[in-house]
Amino acid sequence: QVQLVESGGGLVQAGGSLRVSCAASGNIVEVNTMGWYRQAPGKQRELVASITRAGSTNYSNSVKGRFTISRDNAKNTVHLQINSLKPEDTGVYYCAASRRVLIVLGIDYWGKGTLVTVSS
Asked: Facing residues of 26 across strands?
């Protein structure tokens, strides 16, 4: 089992920056890819960024150039740096972990989420 705990959400003005973090514990060795999903009010959860154990990253088109995902395997943490925030970035950000290289093939563990609210 793997436990994921997010932190760093909050209220930010449009144009500002924020970093959300995910601390993983438990049987970390089984995890390959970590990712951040976002669920805006009234919308489905969507993948915004992912990073493999080797450090390969992927971003959704809507966040490319503004979001940066990073991973510290020694500390079992994953961070998401969010710059140039827009009101449409508002939502609950969930940390996710997968045993697979392609995270879209299946999530094995979810965090409980951290709320990011962007005011205009």
From this structure: 2
